[in-house]
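Example with several molecule types.
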Amino acid sequence: MTKWYGWVGTILNVDLSNMKLSREPLSQEFAIKYIGGAGFADRILYDEVSPGPADNALEPENVLIIAPGTLSGTTSPSSSRYLLTSKSPLSGIFASSDGGGFFGSELKHAGYDLIVIRGKAEKPVYLWIDDEHVELKDATHLWGKDTWATDRIIRKEMGDPDIKVIKIGPAGENMCYSAVVIGDLGRAAATRSLAAVWGSKNLKAVAVRGSKGVSVAKPKEFIELCQALTERAKLDPMYSIHTTYGTSGWVHGPLQGLRTTGKPLTAEYPLHHSHLDAFYDKNLACFSCPYHCTHFYSVKSGKYKGISGEGMESGGGQGVGVRFGVMDPAFAFKVNNMCNRLGITTGPRGLNWAWELYQDGIITKEDTDGLELIRGDEEVILKLLHKIAYKEGFGEIMDEPIRGAEKLGRGSSEYIPQSKRAYGGTTALPPGRGRFPFTFAWTLSTRGWDRHLTGQSVTIPGVRDEISDDHLRKLGRERYNDPEFFFQPSSKPDPKQAQELYNTETTHALCAMTATCTFASHQTFITEGIHDEDFVQLLSTATGVDFSLDDLVRATERKTLLERAFNAREGIRRMDDYPYPYYYQLKYGEKAPRVDYSQVDYSIEDYGKVLDEYYRLRGCDLETGIPTRQKLESLGMKDVADDLASRGILSP
Amino acid sequence: MRKILFVDYEKCTGCELCVLYCSFTKTEVFSRARSRVNVIKWEEKGICVPEMCQHCAEPPCVLVCPVNALSKDEETGMVNMDTDLCIGCKRCMMVCPFGAPAIDPITGEVFKCDLCGGDPVCARVCPTEAIQYLKADRVGLIKKRQGMEKLTEAIEFAVARTGGEQK
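Resulting structure tokens for the full complex:
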């Protein structure tokens, strides 16, 4: 048997339909070509899941892949995430979603690089992994239980409080589009409805205990590198904000404000991070992470007194109350707590949609099971979230706006900005410095309207004092030989933005292959985070394979092009790479209803030029956006080109 | 002056970097099962505590070891283990109140914390100083100061309030 370094050498195959488990040796050639994590998962998904309608994603034919990364389980900073990869039931295209905590590293310590789950169990089951011992166990008694109870019961019945469990709650069982997979108390793999795939397979949880550990090829070099990276991170201007408040330190302070008001939010905003202190008891971290960006929180007074748990991230959980007029920060914690246990996202898209419809009188309380969707009513928000999780009445309509609008009619679909077949984008794109890079990156994301994880530049002037304009000029000079690069007005997007997206996608792909948190990489404000060159060193010393930067970049290109090829088979084309207002125009030949085009501060032509440049960099056809044969072959993926050709979407 | 490992569990974030670095230093493998330090967690209560050998003043493990593999160094305070003498009887594991001695799942040998010979890696790498290796006299003072900080805050608060009313 080969001795593995970095990788641990085994894929676990789970056949739910026949209740069979098998351990398959990892091929060294496959490992070197696709690196790990998302790289492995994307290749398997491409090979095993054929194109078809989105609803097929909930059929037994869909495959669910759970992957830690090549660096998971080691001291490499923030490397303990796990990725879920599958076809999305929401959009019917490629989907990946990842969560933090302790599961990914534990899976590596148990000896697995990958779990591939196929078929559908006849009755609810959970997968139990204890090193070599693997077993599908009955989960009938867990069905209907919330995520915390599920965790508690599994640990109790296995008699081991150190088991790491990822699981779905009632929402996942009900195959809600808003459902999420939860690790620990509240580390969610949320996007693209992959928890519904778990529900469709009758898979309640995956529980793991690992005692074997991970070895690396060059121990001395590897550990010194890890220590140096950890020390360097402390020099970053944002380090103290990140380690104190996590994502709340910026997105829900400055960036959220920038998005809505054009200027950073001040402490007057009720969910400005300074108001969270009263709830945070201590900082918590994922395995192997020096950033400890999350918290144990408790509500100490008021009507939500006694609620405690883990969080909170910026975005949905924090914002859901404020968006609907609830100004009490305690409510955000109530929502966070409830959603984690039900296993649904803290910011279902349907909430925004329903509120807008109600405001405009398109729906009334006749439609909403008697609930009045007025601003500031906490009970209504909680009831709606509950209804979504249980698909009760109006909850089922709200759960997924595009399908909901089909049932509802009355022009309600006009209120849904779409991107790659899911709710995404905005009907208004307010101008603001640095806006274009966001829109461009989110629209181009292979999993559709990505918040940030497939790549984006978030280096924006004026957001925080810690990121000075001088610092950005230095970065612009270093990266693009242009000190003013990060100061471009968004009205005239520069084709260089395509290069910026390509670069950030490369870094984020390396994160996804190694299961490293993008928060620890050098892109998201963290200039002293892990750079691509550091990944070369980390992966080389960990695996013993002498990778060059070019080797890794080519692997990230394979990953991205496999995703684009998967989507191409599902019918995704160039027009899908335009933001909603222009996508609509290209598709229907007229302007999208309810969009104020005067607010879109760049033209379709200027956008198209940057898109052309991006396709050139990626090796995609300018007319269709499909990967070219030449590029696929140069990356050693002739079989993918042949597959696309056999389906008539690429020339033979 | 003796030095001791001082754990401030309120600062522990549960990242387990101490665990990874410990097992790696001792075995060149990243493995929770082979670490001399473990982080014990009660997730729903938000509590995590790094736990390792306390190098007791009157170590029960030394008392029960039938072959004198374990000994207390009166000068440094360390409880040392001579693996060459150890016969693997696990008596030390039976009597240790903290679970400090454990069995290596790969080699089958009993192991315990040896303070890395005087420069414990867990303290060196802890990102929040939840584990510190300190001169013995400092520890009590740290705790006293922490206690007083809370009191000082309360006094300041009270003074501000009463002072305000009197004016």
